[in-house]
Amino acid sequence: MPYFWLAILGWITYLILKRSVPPLKGQQLWLLWLVMMSPSLLWIGWTMTNPSEPIPPLLVFGSFMVCSFLYLLMLRNWRGELPSEQGARSGEAAAGEGASNAAKAAAALQASRSDRPKPKPPLTNDEEALLRQCFAWNTFFINKVEYRLQAVVCQGQLRTEPEQAYQAIKENVEGKFGDRFLVLLQEDFQGKPFFALVPNPQASPKLRKLFTTHYRFGLAALLLLLTLFTTALIGTGLAGVPIESIADLSNSPEILLKGLPYALPLLLILGIHESGHFFAARHYRLKTTLPYFIPVPYFLGTFGAFIQIRSPMPNRKVLFDVGVAGPLAGLVVALPLMFWGIVHSEVVPVQPESSFLNFEALNPRISILMTLLGRLLLGSALTENSALQLHPVAIAGYLGLMVTALNLMPIGQLDGGHMVHAMFGQKGGAIIGQVTRVLVICLAFLQRDLWIWAFMLLLIPAMDEPALNDVSELDDRRDGLGLATLVILLLIILPVPPGLANWLL
Q: How high is the mean pLDDT of the chain?
């Protein structure tokens, strides 16, 4: 049975790699596949050589982190070897190529001039004259046009509201150049707005198919069914089914029903989370894929779900709405499940050593929110020396909270990174991301399980991709919602301070 699911997982991994990475050579593609499959191979090897012992958490997380780092490193190096037209990135990276180029153009404005020969200008003299006509003096008074490697940078003075200026100039450029360019409104390192024109990837017939939305319902359904099986398999163990019975699954498939109280709520939380992103993106007419689950036959049964957004973010408002929709939608489902699950959990003596994943005796004081929920629902039964033996539904809700907290970390292209970028700008969001890394490392000295999180966050770039209009700010309502969401993050990951613990317990 392990070999069968390993083969299925390998086949799915190969399909995802083949569709999601640039056109690599066969050997490179198979090396990437081997790196992605290595954690599962190591886990299965451990299980077969040590059938009576659980997989060490260090092996689970360590192999996953190391292989993720190797995957990103290999992919970055190989992408640099590809021709520009053939090296188009897929998914969200491909859709944000133009915005990323504008960020490079902003950095180029601060760099000293080099002695290398200048690249051939993307515009002729006549086309530059047409471009200057797109900038009205009372909207954006253009001073000069500079040519960068993959961008036409228009410097000048912004004389109206950023949103109005962007919309007017975007319409003018499209009227004179069609869909040849993406129009971006960015800020340089001194906070001065500038416009940039970058080649539109969708204007190339060879690359347009990357942005065409084809909902692969069959693939999404297959991954969902496989993840339902793997999570139900893990759920049977959490429900107390002996390992011998699980190993004899082919003769007693009905034991999987005992794993559904864990599997169904967990898939519901993860699915609703990604559906929040999906429907928010569709509301703003962004091209996106369906949510795809990631099944694994060990650990928690899944590594979550994901979608690929194949359109650049038009502005910071859309960036915020799409980013916050997933965590809020997931919380709407996770919290009621936590309420029900905690009520049906058992209070047990606390153990000297506990962790985030000790479901047999979870110390609620590792999280302010968990302590508040436990005290609210269990009352005086939860004392200072008590822990919770979580019901499978509570385990699913608890994992949903952990997934939400990880996604809300204000770093890079995580949901929280999108939010702080939208709230404070790209540079401000990057600074917050760096500070967050340091704070999580400090917190890891108190919560040892957070060392895994700290290592993961170090692998994520702190700088988020800019929106097309990255200057227009959010309204007060969205700023308030963003701050409230970050407070929820703190309630989930911060341990209970001694003073609050004495008052609650």
A: 81
